[in-house]
């Protein structure tokens, strides 16, 4: 069996995608390609974030080369000004504004420290905004502003994030643990997503676990759930409790350590992905030194994924293939890609093309 690599499969558009960290959108316009469309993010005089097509309707100059001025975004070529709704609100040297003087405006929401844009055509669906349990609640520390640009198609990212098995090998220098390698993964599905999870029982606490919590000399049980809320949110939920402790929700929250690790994948082009990450933890919440070490460790871990994803992208482009054989751990990734195909097909009204031959 061979599965072809196809970079023309398109994107799920009726969705809120993370476009930038709120702090990136300020006094100067920010250019960012999203779903292969040029977008410019900026702030209006009242401080609200706005997102427009990054092409002036006059001569198609990138509006991101202009500046925030005159109550909107002013083109850097001849000074036409556009408001958050995309309509032109001023043209130097003339009083009338032609009806064609407008650009596409993307609905915008700020939440979780991120600026999100709705890339669909219809009304934005508030229910499609990710919900982050623990965020902003007492007892949880937030580590945010995480970002990497990955030079690979978002489907390679989804396969990576639905695949707990790679951790042992790719991340052996960081989060990998040899004890994990033979524990099978269970998969469950929901309406918009799926979860691949496993308990790794009665293993020594990792060095990081010991830094995070006093497990004494005893062993631990570790539950790792790789959740994916399609099309763009990965949510890894890790609970570590003393071995043998009852697995009640209360114990999973308070009996040891709990981590919610989010990645928001925003396709940049068909060959690259914006990888935003945000991390919640219920341990050592106020320890800045610990957090700095944790951040560096996560950046390194995601960098290992980035290097592999980019190498795989090159391999797919050279061969035109996505894979030549299938193994048992492909189950969750294939299910996730099939769900993506169904979502894309539902938006276009076309029948879903299977994710594999
Ligand atoms: S290109 Fe923007 S005003 Fe002329
Ligand atoms: Fe990884």
TrEMBL record:
Listed name of the protein: Aromatic ring-hydroxylating dioxygenase subunit alpha
* Span of domain Rieske: 16-117
Q: Which UniProt keywords apply?
A: 2Fe-2S, Dioxygenase, Iron, Iron-sulfur, Metal-binding, Oxidoreductase
> What single Pfam family name could you report for this chain, choosing any that match?
VanA_C
Keyword Cell inner membrane listed? The answer is: no
State the coiled-coil residue ranges.
Answer: none
Cross-referenced CDD domains:
RHO_alpha_C_DMO-like (cd08878)
Per the record's keyword annotation, is Nucleus included, yes or no?
Answer: no
| PROSITE patterns the UniProt entry points to | RIESKE
For this UniProt entry, the molecular function terms from Gene Ontology, in alphabetical order, are: 2 iron, 2 sulfur cluster binding; dioxygenase activity; metal ion binding
């Amino acid at each position: 069996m061979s599965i072809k690599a196809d970079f023309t499969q398109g994107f799920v558009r009726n969705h809120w995608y993370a476009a930038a960290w709120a702090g990136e959108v300020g006094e100067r316009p920010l250019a960012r390609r999203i779903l292969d469309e040029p977008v410019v993010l900026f702030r209006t005089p009242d401080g609200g974030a706005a997102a427009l097509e990054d092409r002036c309707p006059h001569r198609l100059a990138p509006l991101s080369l202009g500046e925030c001025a005159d109550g909107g975004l002013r083109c850097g070529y001849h000074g036409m000004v556009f408001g958050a709704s995309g309509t032109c609100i001023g043209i130097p040297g003339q009083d009338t504004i032609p009806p064609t003087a407008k650009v596409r405006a993307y609905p915008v929401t700020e939440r979780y420290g991120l600026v999100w844009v709705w890339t669909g055509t219809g009304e934005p669906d508030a229910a499609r905004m990710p919900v982050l349990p623990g965020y902003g609640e007492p007892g949880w520390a937030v580590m945010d502003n995480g970002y990497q640009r990955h030079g690979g198609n978002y489907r390679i990212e989804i396969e990576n994030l639905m695949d707990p098995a790679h951790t042992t090998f790719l991340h052996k220098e960081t989060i990998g643990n040899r004890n994990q390698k033979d524990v099978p993964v269970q998969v469950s599905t929901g309406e918009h997503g799926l979860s691949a999870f496993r308990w790794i029982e009665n293993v020594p606490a990792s060095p990081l676990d010991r830094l995070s919590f006093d497990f004494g000399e005893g062993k631990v049980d570790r539950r790792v759930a790789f959740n994916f809320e399609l099309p763009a949110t990965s949510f890894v939920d890790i609970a570590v409790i003393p071995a043998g402790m009852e697995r009640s929700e209360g114990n999973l929250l308070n009996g040891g350590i709990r981590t919610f690790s989010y990645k928001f994948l925003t396709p940049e082009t068909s060959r690259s992905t914006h990888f935003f990450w945000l991390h919640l933890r219920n341990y050592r919440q106020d320890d800045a030194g610990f957090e700095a070490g944790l951040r560096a460790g996560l950046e390194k871990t995601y960098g290992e994924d980035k290097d592999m994803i980019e190498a795989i992208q090159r391999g797919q482009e050279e061969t035109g293939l996505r894979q030549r054989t299938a193994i048992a751990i492909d189950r969750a990734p294939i299910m996730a890609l099939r769900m993506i195909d169904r979502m894309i097909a539902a938006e276009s009204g076309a029948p879903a093309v299977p994710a594999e031959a």
